[in-house]
Write a structure and sequence with these properties.
heterodimer; A: alpha/beta; seven-stranded parallel beta sheet; two-stranded antiparallel ribbon; globular; B: alpha+beta; three-stranded mixed beta sheet; 2 helices
């Protein structure tokens, strides 16, 4: 009799490494038996027949431990090599923190905008001009800025010169901001009061990578300056697809350039039929009124959403 | 260059799974990077191979599935294949398309050993 499984085979053939004789496939395969209640996302498929040892030998006593492997049980003829099915989003961890940021922003009445563009599109100049214009248009509205760059604090210094609090995040070799960076920066920057406020996040100048990282913002705002080339929305489609608004910046330079604004907008709408477009010049102030009105509309929408959530909370607490 | 960050995210996912599932190394890792996911598969593979030494991914075979891009054409009310964002609908030539497939970026499964 087989001393491992108890079947009526020739016991002399049994070895410690596996079975010396064959069995028909068991209905109780490890995949069928080992369902973990705590890990519903993970499903085991058939263990592969690799020749990994499934016995642990105690070096002092020579005792053999068959249940020490990951499967916690030894099945003759089967190694403990196995397949794990994950089906997990690679950006899932970032998205989880981004969702926390979003909830945090909502709780504190913060409308966060994520500014993305190539280097040199005029992001910082536009932000400075926007902050200055908001001082007269919406006095008392707190505005804070998170500045992302690989190195230096030049941009944060420029923002601070306007009087707005700014925090520089240097990514080192990183090509984008991620949600944990913004969470950390926001915790240091924010005064944690509950009045409505604006948070501008100036991403690293890069039209590729920041498209994929959700920071918890209300909207991504892509800035494209007319000195860059009207075909950029097609060359870097992911960024324009991810953005809610495209600001066509430096339009005061149009008379000196061969830049077809309408063609640029048509290209942007090819990759994102819903994208909104505003033409601005941070230098001359042209179009700034439309841009500020857009910001105010976002602030109002977030305020209404905040009120609704507050009312829902009250209704829920009085109903219970 | 964001493929390097993604490779780090994949390794983190693998290490977290190893804590829960207790395995010593990955022999085969299967990923999905859709054609519209914004990822260059070659760069992702390069980044993974670069960070693998000394980790659970050391020596692992890496397969990257690239499901084709699909989009819903709002004018034709049809799902059409597109190779990249900004492509026209093959039926009407229009651009009112909403990507619906080939946008995912995930770890599908892995084979592991103790």
């Amino acid at each position: 009799m087989c001393v491992v499984c108890g079947c009526a085979g020739d016991g002399s053939q049994v070895t410690m490494e596996g079975h010396g004789h064959a069995h028909p496939p068991s209905p109780y395969s490890p995949a069928a038996r080992r369902v973990k209640p705590g890990a519903p996302a993970i499903r085991r498929t058939d263990a592969v027949q690799a020749e990994a040892s499934h016995v642990a030998v105690d070096p002092s006593s020579g005792d053999l431990h068959f249940g020490a492997g990951a499967a916690r049980v030894s099945v003759p003829g089967m190694s403990q090599a196995r397949a794990i099915r994950l089906e997990t989003d690679i950006l899932g961890e970032n998205d989880r923190v981004a969702a926390q940021n979003r909830a945090h922003f909502a709780a504190h009445g913060v409308t966060a905008l994520n500014f993305v563009s190539s280097p040199g599109s005029g992001k910082t100049t536009l932000l400075c001009a926007t902050i200055e214009a908001l001082k007269t248009r919406a006095p008392g509205l707190p505005v804070a800025v998170i500045e992302g760059d690989q190195q230096t604090s030049f941009d944060a210094d420029r923002i601070r010169a306007t009087g707005a609090p700014a925090l520089q995040v240097n990514t080192g070799k990183g090509c984008h901001l991620d949600a944990p960076m913004v969470a950390e920066a926001f915790a240091r920057l924010h005064r944690h009061d509950h009045e409505r406020s604006l948070l501008f996040i100036e991403n690293v100048g890069n039209l590729v990578c920041p498209a994929m990282w959700d920071l918890g913002e209300a909207a991504k705002v892509a800035i494209l300056s007319v000195t860059e080339g009207e075909d950029k929305p097609l060359k870097y489609p992911d960024m324009f697809a991810a953005s809610t608004l495209m600001l066509v910046n430096k339009i005061d330079l149009l008379p000196y350039l061969n830049f077809d604004v309408e063609r640029c907008i048509a290209f942007a709408r090819r990759v994102n039929p819903a994208i909104e477009v505003i033409r601005v010049s941070a230098t001359t102030g042209e179009g700034m009124g439309d841009w500020l009105a857009w910001i105010e509309a976002r602030l109002k929408a977030d305020a209404v959403a905040g009120l609704r959530a507050g009312i829902d909370d009250i209704v829920r607490s009085t109903a219970s | 260059m964001h493929e390097a960050s993604l490779a780090g995210g994949i390794l983190q996912l693998v290490e977290r799974t190893a804590e829960r599932e207790r395995f010593a190394r990955v022999t085969h890792l299967r990923l999905e990077a859709g054609q519209l996911a914004g990822v260059e598969s070659r760069a992702l593979r390069f980044a993974l191979e670069a960070i693998a030494p000394g980790t659970l991914l050391d020596g692992a075979r890496i397969d990257i599935d690239e499901p084709p891009g699909e989009a819903w054409c709002m004018d034709c009310s049809l799902t059409v294949q597109i190779a990249q964002r900004g492509d026209a609908c093959v039926h009407c030539g229009g651009y009112r398309l909403q990507p619906t497939g080939g946008t995912e970026l995930k770890v599908i499964d892995m084979q592991v050993e103790d």
